[in-house]
Amino acid sequence: MSSSLKLLAEIRQSSERRPFEVLKLSEPLLNKGSISQAGDDVWLVYEQVFIAAIDEGEIDVAKAVLEILHKRFGGSQRVKRLYGMINEAVGYPDEAKKLYDEMLEKDATNVLASKRLIALLKSQGQYSIAIQELVSYLDTHGNDFEAWLELAHLYLANHLYAQAAFCLEEVILQQPANHYFHLCYAEVNYTMGCLDIALKEYLRVVELSTDNVRGFYGIKLAADRILDITSHGAGKSRDSSHFKVENAPQKATLERLSQLATERLVAIYSGTNDATKKTVEAWLKL
Amino acid sequence: MIGSLSLKAVLGTTLALSSISTLVHGLFPDEAGRIDWYREQMGVPKKIVPYTGGNGTSIFAITHRNVLASLNPNSGEIIWRQVFGDSEPINTLQLRDDQALTHSGANESYVRVWDAATGSLKWEFSHPEAPTYKPSSGAAAFLDGNKDVLAVVGDSLVRLSADQSKPVWEVSLNRTATYKRIVVQGDVAYAIGDATQTSKARQQRLHVLEVNLATGSLAKQYDIANGMSLGSDNLVVIESKEYGAYVVWREEKNIVWMIHRLGMIKPMWDIYHAKIVQVELMPEDMLASTISELDLDPGLNENVPRFALTYTKEGKTKTVVVEMFRTDDKLDMRKVVGFRSDNGVVASFGSALPVNEANKSAQKQRTVVSVRSYNNSVAWRIYSDDKAPTHTGEFAYNPATYGPVTGASLYYTNNDEPRVLVQTGGGLLAALAPNTDGPLWSRDESLAHATDMAFMELPPPASSAEHAAKATDPSVVNSPLVRYILRWVETTKSLTMWVSSGFGLLDSTDNTASSSADLASRSVAEALVPTSPLTTGDHFGFRKLSIFGTSTGVVAALSTQDGTRSWTHWFADNGTSVKVEHIFVTRRTQPLSEDAALVTVVGRNARGKTVVADLDALTGLPASENAIQWLASGHTKVFELPVVDTATNQQLIGIITDGKEPQFRIWPSTAAGAKAFFAISDTVFFDLGGSKGSIQLRGYSIERSSELEISSWNKDSVASTKRQWAFDLPEGEILVKETEYRNGAQNTALLGRVLGDRSVLYKYINPHLVTLATLRSEGGIGIYFIDRVSGRLLHSAIHKNARVTAKQPFLGIQTENRVIYQLWQDGSFAPVSSNSTGKHQATTSGYITVVAELFESDKPDTREDSKAFSSYDILLPSVVTTAFTAPEAASALGITRTGSHITTRDVLFGLVSNKLLSLPDQLFDPRRPKEAPTKDEQAEGLVPYAAPLVLDPKRVLSHYNTVAGIKFISSAPTHLESTSLVASFGLDMFFTRTSPSGTFDQLSPSFSKVNLVVTTLALVIGCLLGGPMVRRKMTNQAWE
Q1: Distances (CA, A) of B768 to B765, B788, B851, B878
Q2: Considering the domain boundaries, does residue B864 fall inside one?
Q3: B331, B413: one domain
Q4: B1006 at the A interface (CB within 8 A)?
Q5: B1007 at the A interface (CB within 8 A)?
Q6: d(CA B221, CA B192)
Q7: Residue B911 has what pLDDT?
Q8: B1040 touching chain A per CB within 8 A
Q9: Is the Cβ pair A76, B1031 closer than 8 Å?
């Protein structure tokens, strides 16, 4: 097998979206016909080339490839989806939606069709419908954390923080070792005023990811804010009732956490240029 | 319900079938003659009589192994044979009117008449033991004109009628003589014997008895031939119908022949030598001359009486055939044939009459053959008169293989072609024909007289890569890669050969053809000396050399696979055979050693002197110049020593010789051997007095010789022995047989027996265990287990009603921790143990097989708590015994041997019904439960006890072969743990392979390699065809 086919296979397996490279690699293969060397994988390569061509706007290439696939597989659902995608690409979202609906009518559990439909709705700005579709999709495919993540983003876009936090909880359940999800969750909670949960999640972030700057900033912010709220009493603050700090640690712990965050941030930025350092120090009120 | 029933039925049937399949030990029909071989034998002939009857000529023989046989004169095959009892020697053979007459036995004697064509018994007459019987008397002869027989049986002369097979009349001989010859003349008969020496007449002489055949009345009796006896070199008895019967003799220190016509007391004729040889013989030449009888069946001589004279004149030995003739009323003698018989080789001769009537009249005289063996050939001439020989012939023959020619006879085929039958000192019988190179056929009968046998492992096939590499450059063998490549080269070569030979199919048909041909001619020797002696074995160790020692002096090496002869060597002392008694393989072929394999032979000459010899085991030639040595005295015991002479890599042999005190000799008797031996001499013990009739067993150790003696050890050196103990048998008991471990039978793979509850009964295995069987004067057999080192009595038992006679022998064998023996039990079947009350009383007589198993303790998991086994310290073994009734007697017992003893050992029986039977050792377990087996006993797999030993016909190893007279059963391991080589010999020889626990490490014979290849190919093709289809389907599925 030629090296370009090998590279294509690697790209395919890592689910990376590198359309330019894919097209560049596949062009000689398509022209010379040596794509048949891929054996049984030739159809996967065609599919890969097709998606890359759409991404790059090479609609002619995409059409040619789609023709080949159509010839081989005829009424295949997988090919139908590709037709949907090319319709999206050339600006016929309604046509595409119709195709996706047809596919879902035939098989309501068709994951790819559902996802395409949701993506299509999202791109059209029909967030509420997209959310609706995604929720019904997740009813069936509860273990698809990426879908949960997508739903969280959709909720955030609509400032539905509590719903987003719920989605992120699902994501963390499935991917508990990824600090980024914890960070998102912490930030959503901070935004909602659940400072105790936010602090805990920020701490989890720095636990999973060494010297995570965003994590330490979060710790600093949350700890200081809780200290501020608890030391000035409930009445003094403007709307301290909006904050939840019941499960926060003792004052001394909070102070030490704040101190630790400060120390680490200073240490992390000690190697950078003076301007950055100064900005950080200013923020940290040092 | 019905479903479950049928399921049970199916399960039951399956179980039953599977249990049957494990029990069947028979062999496939196509294996017969392929994994085994069989040689039908008769023994060294005592007398050979070619006889032409209604069915043409055949050769009849009586042998020293008590066999009467009829041979095909053209092929030497045995047409039929009758095997007589061991204690029943055949004294007389006579053939008349298609009937063979034998007189056999000693005091209890038998006269039998056989159909000459089929060998079926026509009638027999037996005479019980007579108190007045004269040892070695006995003779029988047919009467003229009818089929009645006159015989000397016991102490009587009887005329037996063929119709009634009972005496017509009987004459008591009253100890007057030892009668060995009967001459029938018309209506009278003469019984001739060596007269009994009395105080009055002390001199040897012949006694003649004349009886009237019709009435049995004694006509006269008288003595003749003072100083002579029958069978002497100077006396012949000659018979003829026309001239009457005569006794001719020459008295010692007398140069004149005396001639006596039987029945005429006076006158006698004196005849001078000169008239016969037509040369004046000097008196001293005459004194040295001998006379001998010429005709194999004197009674058949229709014409004139003849005999032969051998004399030496002026350094030349001549033999002259003399014929009696009558002129007018005067009897005279004349020479018929004369020939030289010297060159240091004794001439032998026989004579015969042509078969066809026309030729008989044409050749008035009977023809005479002379056979001379000299250098490396045998030359023979046939004379019918004093002119040139009518036929001559010569064939290459090395006397070192079977000894020189000792006898010859002549016979004619149905076309009147002469044939010469020669017999050699070693026991070879060969038929020679004019104008043929080798012998027409030959029979090696020495192996019927085998006394010992040893298996010799042959080196693996030389075609293996290591050997090929060794031939070119030994250093390359060190590289594993080179070895690997060489192996592949060899394998590829053999594969191409296999393919070019038609995938082994053609080869196998060839084999079956040759094996079926073998079946037809298996009784006939394949070749006197093979062109290429066997030097390599096979990968599985099936092909070994079995080296036999015989009492005729022949040491022969045979392939265990097909019985082909590799070499033979004849041991003799001044021309007479040495009785070979022991064969030891003292040096095996080692893979990277140049030392030749050695076999050490111990024999005894006629005067009892011992000879020890080392032979090259692959060629049969003496290993070195000093390889054959005569000891100063005879040996009483020979055994292998557990030590190897480091200088020659040869295993040492210990020889006990007679002396004031028993003397111990070491073979090879070199300083290096002595040094090696005295390093371990503290552990060597032996016992003497184990022979039949002894009343005391004595144990000895060996005294250490001084350093000086050891360093100057030579063939005359002996070590002194010290008596350690003596075991006196109880008053009135004499020893019948001593049994000890043979051929590594004490080796074992398991120290104990695991019982059903996982506890262990430890076996008592003592390599110095000796079993004695004694005959009690008050009746019964005593059994004693003795430790050879300490002389301690380990166990004893008495079989009160048992008996040992020549016909009901005691047989014993020791294997692992078991002693198995067979004896005859009269009347009741009593248990073995001495303190028993006789619970199992039965009333039948018969053979019983008793098994005694020895354990260290009767309690499980209890064993002697010491690191080393000491004969002095160990507690007495716990002995469990059981007896079985055997439906028939065995003549030999044996045990199968395998490499690691993991396979169970079968007990081998050579049955008197001419079969070789193998029975599983589980049957001989004395712990077999007598009552319903407990759970533990079931878990242990003990078979419930049943008194009769079932001699299962499915377990007859010798299948359809008649293996007569088995005296020895020997076994050797192969490279496959499952398989054991089994050899039985005595009279007939039978070799086979057996797998007591099944062939668990071999493919079954029905396994088809072709099928395997075809199946693999089919699978590959299936994958190639099915693969794309499946992939296409999977792609379609992915793109649904």
Answers
A1: 9, 5, 19, 17
A2: no
A3: no
A4: no
A5: no
A6: 10
A7: 93
A8: yes
A9: no
User: In Å, how far is B1021's CA from the nearest CA of chain A?
Assistant: 21
Closest chain B C-alpha to A178 CA, distance in angstroms: 32
Is the CB of residue B681 less than 8 Å from the CB of residue B674? no
Environment class of residue B755 by beta-carbon count within 10 Å: exposed (0-12), middle (13-18) or buried (19+)?
A: middle
- Which of B342, B369, B402 is the last residue in one of the domains? B342
Cβ proximity of B804 and B773 under 8 Å: yes
End-to-end CA distance of chain B: 50
Partner-chain residue, chosen from B1031, B1034, B1039, that has the shortest CB–CB distance to A76: B1039
Residue of A nearest to B1030 (CA): A40
Instruction: With CA atoms as reference, report the closest residue to B309 among B293, B325, B297, B324.
Output: B293
Number of domains in chain B: 3
What value of ipTM does the predicted structure carry? 0.70
Residue B469 has pLDDT above 80, yes or no: no
Query: Is there a single domain that holds both residue B322 and residue B333?
Result: yes
CA distance, residue A80 to nearest chain B CA (Å): 10
Contact B1040 A78 (CB under 8 A): yes
* B994 within some domain: no
Domain boundary among B415, B443, B471: B443
DSSP secondary structure string for all residues of B604-656: E-TTS-EEEEEEETTT-SBSSTT-EEE-SS-EEEEEEEEEEETTTTEEEEEEE
* pLDDT tier at A234, thresholds 50, 70, 90: low
Cross-strand partners of B911: B890, B915
B1037 touching A (Cβ < 8 Å): no
The gap between the terminal CA atoms of chain A, to the nearest Å, is 62
d(C-alpha B276, C-alpha B286), whole Å? 12
| Closest partner CB to A78 (pick from B1031, B1034, B1039) | B1039
pLDDT tens digit sequence for B778-824: 888 999 999 999 999 999 999 988 888 888 889 999 998 999 999 99
Q: What is the mean pLDDT of residues B662-687?
A: 90
Amino acid found at B187 = D
Geometric angle at alpha carbon B93, from B89 and B99, rounded to 5°: 125
Find the domain containing B1036 and state its range. Answer: 1010-1040
